[in-house]
């Protein structure tokens, strides 16, 4: 019999008597601590893989714990734990842990995530769509490409607004507090504006997914289509978790900073 070890706790008996192992449920229950081995986190939840470059962590860390890797890389362990727990565990709410969070580190982390989307994820998706157009001889590919291009424009606008307006605003707030400025510069913006317009870009991925799953006619090459869907779902997951960090960490922090200077 195969021994699934710790994953046994996640097996759900289904009506037909078979079972599935739901790793995401496992991670939802698990709060990662400084003593957790980093390799265990990655082995249990592949979503954590994309987080590593956001902290400048390379694979090959052996059996080192989160704390040991963070010390080696000069990352505040608490900051790493907060990000990873919010990203991987939808039931995790940071609450008071936000108080001493390093704002510069948070902004760098968010900007690194954006860079990953812009320099890695989106170009790869573009390559796949191009390949799809080449191998699938169907005029509907043009429709798919149009959909995709429109979506990417929206994603880029979303990221650009954050990079050029929201993040610099939070950085300026933090800088003024650090400088202990005698009087604070008037900034004609507040985090409420960001909160209001912070839409769910990941939701629009549904149209693209539906097109590929339900409506696009069957084509000779099945695998390229599955590859695109896999990538889209992966992107969707990443964007959802990224948005949670902006909503649950960035916005509350900015509100705290605003209170300090008001
Ligand atoms: Fe963002
Ligand atoms: Fe966002």
What can you tell me about this protein's structure?
This protein has 262 residues and is an all-alpha fold. The protein has 2 domains: 88 residues, no CATH class; 164 residues. The protein is 63% helix and 2% strand. The chain contains 9 helices and 2 strands; from the N terminus they run ββααααααααα. The chain has a two-stranded antiparallel ribbon. β1 and β2 form a beta hairpin. α5 packs antiparallel against α9. It binds fe (ii) ion (FE2) (2 copies). The site of one fe (ii) ion (FE2) has 6 residues, from α5, α6 and α9.
Strand order of the largest sheet: 1-2
* Contiguous helical run count: 9
Total strands: 2
Q: Tally the structural domains.
A: 2
Largest beta sheet, briefly?
A: 2 strands, antiparallel
Order of helices and strands: EEHHHHHHHHH
Poorly predicted regions: 1-27
Catalogue the ligands: fe (ii) ion
Q: Proportion of β residues?
A: under 5%
Which structural class fits the helix and strand makeup? mainly alpha
- Tell me the Rg in angstroms: 21 Å
Q: How far is it from the N-terminal to the C-terminal residue, by CA?
A: 64 Å
The level of helicity is 55-70%
Mean pLDDT: 83
Task: Please state the overall shape, judged from the principal axes of the Cα atoms.
Answer: globular
Provide a short characterization of the protein structure:
The chain has 262 residues and is an all-alpha fold.
């Amino acid at each position: 019999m195969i021994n699934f070890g710790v994953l046994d706790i996640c097996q759900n008996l289904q009506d037909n008597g078979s079972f599935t192992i739901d790793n995401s449920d496992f991670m939802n229950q698990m709060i990662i601590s400084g003593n957790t081995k980093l390799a265990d986190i990655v082995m249990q939840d592949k979503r954590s893989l994309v987080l590593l470059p956001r902290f400048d962590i390379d694979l090959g860390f052996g059996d080192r714990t989160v704390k040991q890797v963070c010390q080696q890389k000069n990352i505040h362990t608490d900051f790493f734990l907060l990000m990873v727990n919010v990203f991987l565990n939808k039931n995790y709410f940071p609450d008071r842990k936000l108080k001493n969070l390093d704002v510069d580190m948070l902004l760098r982390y968010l900007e690194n995530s954006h860079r990953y989307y812009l320099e890695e994820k989106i170009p790869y998706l573009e390559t796949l769509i191009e390949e799809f157009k080449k191998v699938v001889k169907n005029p509907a590919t043009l429709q798919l490409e149009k959909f995709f291009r429109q979506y990417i424009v929206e994603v880029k606008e979303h990221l650009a607004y954050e990079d050029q307006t929201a993040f610099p605003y939070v950085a300026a707030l933090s800088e003024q507090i650090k400088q202990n400025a005698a009087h604070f510069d008037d900034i004609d913006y507040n985090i409420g504006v960001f909160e209001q317009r912070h839409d769910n870009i990941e939701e629009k991925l549904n149209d693209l997914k539906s097109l590929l799953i339900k409506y696009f006619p069957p084509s000779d090459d099945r695998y390229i289509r599955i590859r695109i869907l896999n990538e889209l779902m992966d992107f969707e997951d990443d964007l959802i978790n990224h948005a949670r960090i902006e909503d649950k960490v960035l916005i509350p922090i900015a509100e705290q900073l605003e209170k300090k200077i008001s």
